[in-house]
Each structure stands twice: as structure tokens, then as C-alpha cells.
Amino acid sequence: MYDLIGxxxxxxxxSGIIIIPGIISLILWGLTxxxxxxxxxxxxxxxxxxxxxxxxSKLEKIIRENxxxxxxxxxxxxxxxxxxxxxxxxxxxENFQKELxxxxxxxxxxxxxxxxxxxxxxxxxxxxxxxxxxxxxxxxYITLSFRHIPKPYSSWKFGISAVAALIHDVLLVLGVxxxxxxxxxxxIDSLFITALLTVxxxxxxxxxxxxxxxxxxxxxxxxxxxxxVNNSLLQTLARSLSTSLTVLLTLTALLLFTGESIRWFIIAxxxxxxxGTYSSIFNAxxxxxxxxxxxxx
Amino acid sequence: MKSLRIKLWLIAVITVLAALIxxxxxxxxxxxxxxxxxxxxxxxxxxxxxxxxxSLQKSFDTRLGxxxxxxxxxVLQAEMDKISSPDRQKAFDSAKSTIERRINLFGLTExxxxxxxxxxxxxxxxxxxxxxxxxxxxxxxxTTAQLTFRxxxxxxxxxxxxxxxxxxxxxxxxxxxxxxxRSQVSYDTNTxxxxxxxxxxxxxxxxxxxxxxxxxxxxxxxxxxxxxxxAPKVNEPITGGQAVIQGQFTTAQAKELSVLLNAxxxxxxxxxxxxxxxxxxxxxxxxxxxxxxxxxxxxxxxAFMVFNYGLLGLVADIALIIYSLxxxxxxxxxxxxxxxxxxxxxxxxxxxxxxxxxLIFERMKEELSxxxxxxxxxxxxxxxxxxSIRDSNISSLITCAILYWFGTGIIRGFAITLSVGIxxxxxxxxxxSRTLLQLLYKD
Lengths: 297, 443
Known about the structure:
The complex is a heterodimer.
Chain A: H1 8-29, H2 35-38, E1 40-47, H3 56-65, E2 70-75, E3 80-85, H4 90-104, E4 107-115, H5 117-145, H6 155-184, H7 190-220, H8 225-257, H9 263-296
Antiparallel strand pairs in A: 1-3, 1-4, 2-3
Chain B: H1 2-22, E1 27-33, E2 36-42, E3 46-51, E4 54-59, E5 63-64, H2 66-69, E6 71-78, H3 88-105, E7 112-118, E8 121-129, H4 135-142, E9 147-151, H5 165-168, E10 171-176, E11 180-187, E12 194-200, H6 202-214, E13 220-224, E14 227-230, E15 242-245, H7 251-265, E16 270-278, H8 280-309, H9 311-333, E17 337-338, H10 340-369, H11 374-406, H12 410-440
Parallel strand pairs in B: 5-17
Antiparallel strand pairs in B: 1-2, 3-4, 6-8, 6-16, 7-8, 9-10, 9-13, 11-12, 12-15, 13-14
Helix pairs in contact in B: 1-9, 1-12, 3-4, 3-7, 8-9, 8-10, 9-10, 9-12, 10-11, 10-12, 11-12
């Protein structure tokens, strides 16, 4: 029988290696939030006249002259630009459009968004609440549904270990996106929060499958806790890998064939779900063992 | 084995029903029939039921969210500072119906106007699909409602063929919504029929007294945003600032009128706090790409299952197809508004649907390797895998519920599609595949 649990420290170290760069990035640079959270205006402009294309400095100058506060300006395609501004109203936007038309002829407004600062604050608050509530609800649910495990093992430890694995996944995704945000200007938007919560769901999904087998084996087999957990891990390994593979296959299809608009959403899911599988096998269950061993010594 | 037959029929009926609902609006089919070709247009059924007083009309359409259809999303905040707290809900309702009226005035298609109260914030969410230049409409939506009372023209000045209602009642009486305290539905004490009661403030009461004595026997017209709401006839001069409008109202009609009058009585300034305009090209491309991605994803998963589990995998694939048919049918029936995130949730739930089957099959493999015969292995596989399928899916449903609770817009769409997917997957992966497998191995 292969001894997975014996190598638990190696698994913890591996987790550390992949998570720590992200944490450093989070501390140094934080996250790049979209206007969903910060409030502001966003314009996507397409300059259709080939012979009269703007460049960044020209655009910046027009924005300054119109007394608009620029947050960032990025070229998203050959002739499209994404302009992020402090909140502006419709009239300001109309004047700005007129000015652009004067200088560059036809300009198509692909997107125009305004998010008021209060809405942004609420979205942030709700996202944080959702993550905290989901974690607490999961601990309670696991504690309840594992309440029949034989003594001396306590079901709330299962809940907390599952949530520890979940935090592992959330930290990894946040960290990676902090790095993406700094170097690639990837923004955290509402869709990202959706991805994060899905990752949490999946992570717990995986942990529960492993825990369920531990619960079953605790009542049936003999041996030390560590041996039972090790057996349970090996027995569920094929399932965990197969399931992750199917989910990753669908996600890869989405990534390859859908457009720009949900690309980062899919990438967040890919990273998170891969991490979820890893953490439920190599972190959540070994953590339980570590906890039981600590109690004895 | 009788129960097995019943189950099988049930699954067949559900599948056919779902498939019918899934049919697109019009789907031309050509079947070669001897020398001729049979041409027919198949379409999703419409329910048109009339049983006595009970009637049910339903058509099954795919409803697309703004990010797919393109359109404008607006969030307006109603500023309630000047409205006393007991009147706020009334003012809020009035603001909503005023906005609906204004949008309909512009002939914009299928607008969705919703109220959202967040803490002390009264908000109205407006979604207008379709891409037209709606800046004008947005201007109008944001303005405060104006209620005016107008008088008829004196007989010599009245025009022969008035071109608008404003010309029928050309004289501004000077009385406006500002003088109206509130309006509500009341009932005639004699006949019990519904009527609309108006209550004026002291200045309004005096003005109204003057106006009604000038116009006894004539009509007074009430306009909201220059649109005629009602033109009641004055029977006698009204003193004291309490008036009622009588007519052949149903309670609903009286309510509607009073809500609109309140829009003038309790005017709330509206501020745009969020605005999004999404182009339609983004949407069309995205749908096509997502459908394509979904099909590719499904084929890959299906191939993986057959490769890994052989005949069992094939059964899982059939269950997966039934699953997709049912989920899509539910989306069209409820209906669930499909957004980008929603479609992603659906495709993701395909992966989760397969998970239940993988859990069962892996368990079966184990039981078989411990020397059980095929039928026992099958039974044990289902029975022993069930607790983990149940627990893991319930925890996912909990996450969905929390997402729905805290989320707005796209997040909610995602939560709904994912939970529908999870619930249906429990049926397809457990009941459907089990019934099919029992059919294969019955002895």
C-alpha cells in the first residue's frame, strides 16, 4: 500500500511554494479591482476611420482637456481602446464623444458603463459576506452530516479541515490574480467573485467525497487513524482525478472557444478547481491526521 | 420488474417532453419520402388552455440576459429625503410605474423594471434589451414626474379639430402635483364600487374649490408628463380639499390611477447610479461560441467516459444527454434569463453531473474487485456512493443559495443555472443511469 500520509509535509511544502508568491504579491500590490467594486466609468471606443487613428497620448490629452479624470487607458485591439474614468455623467460623456468625433471622425461606443461609488461599496461588502457565510455554512453542514462518526473523532474537525483546504484554494486564486492584475492588468470583477465561490463549492465537494470514505472506513476497518485515512485517499484517488479531469476538459473547451469576455473567469475556475482537487486530497485529509496525532502526543 | 418498467416509461415521457420544449422557435425538417420530400416546420409547443375560469397560456422561449442580447442596464436611485417615511413605499411604487409608462411611450421592447430596496436605498433597476439610441429615453426616465390639472377651453376658443389632448384642455389651472398630498383607492359608501380619492393641501384645497366652481358641469383633465391620465366631470364645486374620481373602475384600474396620481403627489428625484450599455455583436458571437464550446465539452467528456468505463460510460453518456435536455427545458419553462455566467454555470454543471456517475462506477469497480458479482456490484456501487453524492451536492447547493442571496444580476443567474443543474444531475445520474443499467443486467 502506497503511503501518501507519510509524505504529508512534502504536500504542505508544495502548497506553500505555489501560494506564497501570490501572498507576497497580495501584500505588495494588492488586487486590481474593476469598476464593479471601485465605482467609476468605463468606455470602450472603436475608431473606425483607418486613416485617422488616435494614439494614447492624443487620447490622454483630449481626456484632460475635457476635464475628465483618467484612471487608465489601454488599447484592447487594433483600433479599440478601453478608457476608465472616475464617474462621469451622460452630458460629460456626450461632450467627450463630440470632441472625439471632431478629431477622429466616426467613433463607435462599444460599451459605456457607470457604476456609482455606493453600488461599488455594496458589491464589495456582499462579496466578502458571501465568502464568509459560505464558509460558515459549509462547516456547519459538514459537522452535522458527519455527526455519526465513531468516537473519539469529532465531526467539526472534518468541517474545519475542509474549510482550510478551501482557504488554500481561495488564497491561491486570489494570489495568482494579484500577480495577473499587476503584470497583465487583469481586473477583479463580479464574474471573478462568481468563479471564486464556485471554486469554494468544488473544493468542499472534493473534500466531502474523501471524508465520506474515511467515515465509512472508520466504522468498518481496523488500524490506526493514519492508515485508515491513507486507505480512503487511495480508494477515492481514481474518482477525484477522473472528476477533475472531466471538469477541466469542459473548462478547456470553454477557454478555447469562447471569447475574450469570459476568458479570465474560466482561467480563475481552471486554477481554482485544479487546486481544489489537490488540496482536498493532499491537504484536507493529511490535516485531519496531523490534528489527531497532535492530540495524542 | 414492474416498477422498473414504470420508471423506464417515466424517464421516456420526461425526455420526450423536455425535447419538445427544447425545440427552437421554428425548425424546418425535410424527410425524403419515396420520390417526394416531406417538408415540415417543427416548433416548440405552446400551451393555450382554457378550462372555465382557469386559463393558462405559455410559450417556451429562451430568454437572454442583457449581456447576450445587448441592451441597456440602468440603476436609478430614488431620493427619499423629502418624503415622510410612511409615504415612501407609495412614492417608490409610483416612481416605478411612472418609469414603466415612460419606457412604453418610447416603444422600447420588453423592458424589465424592478424595484430593489437595499437598506435605506430605494432603487429601480431598468433593463432594456436591444440596441437603439436610447439616450433620449434615459433622459426622460431620469426626470421627476410632473402632474398638472388643466381646464377645458371656453366654447368660443375651442378648436374644431384638436390635434392633441393638450388642446382639448388648453388652460393650465395652476394646480399641480405639489398641492396633492396623496391619492388612494376608496369605495363608494352607497354602491361599493371602487373610486380614487384625492387629498389636497390647504393651498390646493382653495385652488381646487375655485377651479371646480368655475368648471361645474365641465371636465378637468389630469396630465402626467403631458399625458392624459383622467378627465373627470365636475358635478359640483368641491370644498375642503377632499375629492373623489368616480367611474366604471375595477379595483385594479382604480389602483393604477391612484399610483400614477401619487407619482405627481410624491415626486421623487431619480438619480442614475449605474448604467451599462452592451453592444449586440458581443452577444451574438458569444452565444454561438458558447454553444460550440458546450458541444465540444460534452463530446470530450462523453469520449472520456466511454474510454474509461466502456459500456457503463455509454450509459452515463445517455444519462448526460437526457440531463442536458431536461435542464434546457427547465431554463425555457421557468424561464431562467440566460446570461454569460449562466451558460458557464450550465456547462460547468455538465462536469458535475458526470461526477455522480464517476463516483458510482469507481465504487462498482472496487466492489467487483472484491469479488462481488456484477449485479451485486452494481447495486452496492449505487448504494454506497450515494452518501457522498448527496453530501457533496448539498454543500454545492448551499453555496448556490448564498450566491443567490448576496449576489445581484450575473451572480444570481449563475447560481440559478448551477442549482438547476445540480438538482437535475441527481435525477439523471442516479435514477436514469440506474434504471438503464438494471435494464441491461436484469436476470
